[in-house]
Amino acid sequence: MDVDIVSEEDNPMLHRTDVTFELTHDDATPERLQVRDSLAAKLNKNADEVVIRNLNTKFGMRKTVGEAKVYESADFAREVEQDHMLERNKIGVEEEADVEAEEA
Known about the structure:
Largest sheet: 4 strands, antiparallel
Strand content: 25-35%
Distance between the termini: 41 Å
Number of helices: 4
Strand order of the largest sheet: 1-2-4-3
Radius of gyration: 15 Å
């Protein structure tokens, strides 16, 4: 899977960069977490700082266009993003499970 950055736009008020990217893949559309990990590696960021908002593959094509929000830290991502997006991108899920396990 090849990741190409199409555009980057800084958003200093929310401590993030809005990124539009294009994936070229051989098989079916990759899963969101695979895309997140590949994009994070390309941008030299931690996977918890990248939130994949949208993936769009046209029928029969091997290219996917996506939108992501890349935060300065995972804490900023948890403050700004909606809960369902954090859950889809598995940000903060492990930490909550650890806290619940310690309480029990």
